[in-house]
Write a structure and sequence with these properties.
alpha/beta, 8 strands
Length: 279
């Protein structure tokens, strides 16, 4: 475990690979932590990269946001600050899952010169998503987690809601080991962390955040789970949100595809990363 200060936050982060290798920053989502990337980090390090996975703001042992900001634009600036602090002045590869994907889209919009490849998992570009009754039902947790009592709901019955969401979002993963959610439960037990995780949802406004209103100029690869709540065709509809190259990679699994089928995901992850350097 290492620590670095970026954008006013003390970030705890995990790191694997030599410090002089090209930097890959991996951002986790909800409900999850940096430890979700352990297998991906090992695969990237073996391929010759330095993989860094921070605990997102508010997720212990990273610090809470003293200004109370947990919106996507702020999360994007967090990612850029981490790249600036650890990248040695060079642009990095940025990977994001779930809320980490939202942050990654924001970072690519705000600082395209600091990102040489954008990789997202499980979330198409928000600008391309149109609300439908089916989608609203699938995203009903948005309403639940915006409530003032959301932190208490998360903590209830040993964070049973966390397990419920993992099972709901990755329905093809029949037997999810209890160990998969141990890390996030430990993080959310720390004072203020559960409320901070819910604050990401409370920060969602009626319109798109400023950074999501613009087209992405960075080469992008989006991973779509074949059994996720957002179908792969939604990623194809997002092509108009990008001006540079854009690839959709379909992989088995649901929302937590990188944990459900790590071998397939990491093989494709290493492929798209190394192909960038081969250009």
């Amino acid at each position: 475990m290492n620590h670095i200060t970026a954008n006013g936050i003390d970030f705890a982060y995990l790191s694997e690979g030599d410090a002089d290798k090209p930097l890959v920053v991996l951002l986790h989502g909800f409900p999850d932590t940096a430890k979700t990337w352990d297998r991906a980090m090992a695969a990237l390090a073996n391929a010759g990269y330095r993989a860094v996975a921070p605990f997102m703001r508010g997720y212990a042992p990273s610090s809470l946001a003293s200004d109370g900001k947990y919106d996507s634009d702020t999360l994007g600036r967090d990612a850029l600050g981490i790249i600036d602090a650890l990248g040695g002045g060079k642009p990095a590869i940025l990977v994001g899952h779930d809320w980490g994907a939202s942050a990654a889209y924001s970072a690519a919009s705000q600082g395209p010169d600091r990102i040489r490849l954008l990789i997202t998992l499980a979330i198409p570009h928000p600008r391309s998503m149109k609300p439908t009754p089916a989608l609203v039902w699938k995203l009903r947790h948005f309403a639940t987690l915006r409530r003032k009592s959301a932190g208490a709901k998360l903590r209830a019955t040993n964070f049973a809601y966390v397990d419920e969401l993992w099972h709901r979002w990755s329905p093809s993963w029949r037997e999810i080991p209890a160990s998969e959610t141990e890390a996030v439960k430990a993080s959310l037990r720390e004072p203020g962390s559960a409320e901070a995780a819910c604050a990401y949802y409370a920060a969602i406004g009626l319109g798109l955040p400023e950074s999501h209103r613009h087209r992405i100029t960075v080469p992008t690869v989006s991973f779509a789970g074949l059994h996720d709540m957002v179908a792969p065709r939604a990623y194809e509809k997002a092509r108009h949100c990008f001006t540079a190259s854009y690839e959709v990679v379909q992989v088995p699994g649901g929302h937590f595809m990188h944990r459900e089928h790590p071998d397939e995901l990491n093989r494709e992850l290493v492929r798209v990363v190394t192909e960038l350097d081969a250009r």
